[in-house]
Design a protein that fits this description.
Layout lengths: L1 H27 L6 H80 L13
Helix pairs in contact: 1-2
């Protein structure tokens, strides 16, 4: 975006400089140069300016298109990486939950094995 602004500003300054140069040249050469030659020269310069501006505009459009394509690709890569991370985290949390559940079952089995018959309904912790 900054490149587009810089190119546009430089192009505008170039046009202003050319117009000023033509105006100064016209004032200094009053009557010294054939009017037809002068008009032909100014027309040539303005045609070159228009051609340069068109080329710069085409280059700006191409740069913007390339930038947008690259930005779209980066977003796709980031979205894919984000999805992979979410899936990995979900998988890890599921594994942790299963591990904790199995440990709780083993602990419950050990408690049940150590509890005398008929006292299984009593809470082990008072309070």
């Amino acid at each position: 975006m900054e490149l587009t602004i810089i190119v546009s500003v430089l192009a505008t300054l170039g046009v202003v400089a050319m117009v000023m140069a033509i105006a100064v040249m016209f004032n200094r050469l009053k009557g010294k140069v054939d009017v037809n030659d002068f008009r032909e020269l100014t027309n040539t310069i303005f045609n070159e300016i228009e051609t340069n501006l068109r080329e710069q505009n085409d280059n700006n459009v191409k740069l913007n298109r390339d930038f947008n394509d690259t930005l779209r690709e980066v977003h796709q890569i980031l979205d894919k990486a984000d999805e992979e991370i979410k899936n990995d985290v979900y998988r890890e949390l599921t594994d942790i939950r299963r591990f904790i559940d199995s440990r709780c079952d083993k602990l419950d089995n050990k408690i049940q094995a150590l509890t005398p018959a008929g006292e299984g309904d009593k809470p082990l912790i008072k309070g």
